Amino acid sequence: MAHSARFSDSPALVVPAQNVKAVKTFLEEHRLLDKRRKIAPYTAESTRAGSSARDQTLDSGKLFIVPFLPVTTSINETDAAIVETYFGDLTPALTSRLPPDALTNISITNLPKTPVPETASPPTTGQPHGNPLRAAFHSALVSSLPAETLSTLSLTPAQLAADLPGTYSIYPPLLLLPAHTFHRPSWTALLAAHDPPSSTTPLLRTVLAHVAQRLAVTHVALNAPIALHNDATATTAAAADQPSNQAAAAAAAPAAPAAAAAATTANILRAPHSLTPLHGDFGPPPCHPPTASPSPADFTAALWATARQNGITQTWAPLHTMFSRGNVKEKARILSLGAVRDAVRQGEGGAGAGAGGEDIAGAGAGTATGCAAVDLYAGIGYFAFSYRKAGVRTVLGWEINAWSVEGLRRGAGANGWGVEVVVVGGGEGGGDGDGDGDGDDWEGLGEDAVVRDFVVFRESNVRAARRVERLRGRLPPVRHVNAGLLPTSRGAWETAVRVLDPGLGGWVHLHENFGEGEVGRKAGEVVEEVRRIWGVVRAERCGGGIGDGLEGDDVVKLEHVERVKTYAPGVLHCVLDIWISPTGNQARS
C-alpha cells in the first residue's frame, strides 16, 4: 500500500574522506546521525543549489555527505558554514576526534527536498529515549500537566519532547538551553495558549521546576550569542523565581530586533545581556552603566556556575559574565606548549629559554626564581589558569569587568591558588581604570602579592607596561604574554612586547580573526608590525636608531599559527605564537 508523504530538508556535513569515520562516530554517540539517508560522495548535484556556503573553500580531495538530524527548524544559508551553530557545546567533542585544523575543512549543507514516508516520522506517542533533556521534559509534561491541557491543542508529551533541541549544557547548578529551545510550532502554540498575561502560575514554571529536579540543577536559562553592543532598551528578567510572564513570552518566540533608534555602545565587557533566566534566583540584575561596581552583597546574592575543563575549575556569574566553552582546545594547548614548558624549566634552573629552547645566560630582571606570565584580557581566568597549571609561578592579569575578576578569584580558590586583586581607586566602588595617570593608590599592593599565584588589576590594560616595570624587581621574569581579544588584539601588541622581560625576551600569543584564505598573509602583516614595535622599544631601552638590531631573522619570529575554531562563515579564530628577542642590554649568548 502506498504511503502518504511529506517533504523535508535534511542537513548534512560535507566531510573530507579521511575524517568521515570520526564524524560518523561522533554523530552516533550523540544520537544525531540521520540513518534515513546514506553517507554518500559529495557532488554538485547532491545538494540544493546555493545551500553550501563553503564549496569553493574546502580543501581539494574526495568529499562525502554525512546526514545528521536537525536541531533547528531550518538551515539559515548565511550561517551554513558555522558548525558550532548546530552543535554548540558538543563542538569540543567533535574537534577532539579530529586532527588539528580539520574542523575548518568541514561545512554544513542542505540536502534536497525528497519525499519522506509518514511511517518514517518519529513517533508522537510513548517516551523518548536517549536524551536526558527530552526525557526530563517528557516526564514533566506527563506528571505536572492535566491531560486536557495538551489534548485541546492536539499535542502530546512525546511530540513536545521530540521538538526540543538535542543539545544543552549543564554548568552546576545551571541548565543552559539553546536560544531556539521553544521556537518549534508545538511549543509556541502551547505557551501562547496557556501562559496569557493574566496567568498567575505560568505553565512553563511548573514544567521547568520538574525538569530542574530531574536533571539535578537549581537554575535554568536560555542562552544567546554575546552582543557586540549594549542596547539601551534591553531589559533583563532577573527577578527571583523565574520565569516571569515576560520571560515565558521571550521563550515562546524569537527575539525581536532592537529598535533602530536605540542608543548603543560597544559591549566591551562581553556581558551576556540576552541571556534569559527561566527558573531560580539569579541574583541582582546587571549594573547600569555596565562598568558600575557591584557590591560585595551583589556578589554574594548572585548565581555562580562552574565548569571543569582540562582538570581546571572555572567559575562565573551567568547573568553578568560570558563563558566560552569553545576555547577548550586553546586552553589545552597552553598546558602542553613547548615554549611554556621551556620557560618554566629554565626559570627553575635560574636561566632563560630562547626561541629554540636554548639557555640564555644570566637571570632576568627579577630576583625570584621561576617565570611569570601576563594575561592582558584575563576574564574569569580562561587562559591564565592554564599558564599557572603548566607551572608558571605568577600570572599577572588585567580585566575591567568586576564580575569577571570575582569569578577569577573564586575559580582560583577552587583550584587551590591564591589571588591578589588590585582595584585601582581603592576599595569598594573604585575607578574602572580608564582615566589618565599612573593611579599611584595601587601601591598598597602587599609585599607578598607577587609570590601569590595571581595578581589581577581591575582596570584597563593601557597601563599594564608601567605596572610591570615597577614590579620587575619583585617578579620572576615575564616570559609569556597572552592577548586574547577578538576580533583583534592589535591595541595590546605594543604592551605585550614591553611587558616581556627585557633581558630574556619571550613569547607573545596574539588572538586574531583572519579570513580563511588570508591566514598566511595576515599573519605576516602582524609579525612585521610587531618587528616595528620591537625596534621602537629596543631603541628606547638601549639607545641607537629604531631599526638597529632588526637585521636578524630571529629577532621577531612567528613560530606557529593555531587555528582555534570557526568564528563566522569564512572567518577563523587564530592564535599567533611569536618569539620576541630581548629588548634590553642583556641579549642571548
TrEMBL record:
Domain SAM-dependent methyltransferase TRM5/TYW2-type, chain residue ranges per copy:
303-582
In this chain, composition skew of type Pro residues spans 283-293
PROSITE patterns, per this entry?
Answer: SAM_MT_TRM5_TYW2
Spans annotated as Disordered:
109-129, 275-295
Q: What is this enzyme's EC?
A: 2.5.1.114
- Biological process per Gene Ontology, one example term: tRNA methylation
Q: Which GO terms describe its molecular function?
A: tRNA 4-demethylwyosine alpha-amino-alpha-carboxypropyltransferase activity; tRNA methyltransferase activity
Query: What top-tier enzyme class does this entry carry?
Result: transferase
Cite the InterPro entries for this sequence: MeTrfase_TRM5/TYW2, SAM-dependent_MTases_sf
Q: Which domain of life is it from?
A: Eukaryota
In Swiss-Prot or TrEMBL terms, this protein is called tRNA(Phe) (4-demethylwyosine(37)-C(7)) aminocarboxypropyltransferase
Q: Which organism is it from?
A: Diplodia corticola
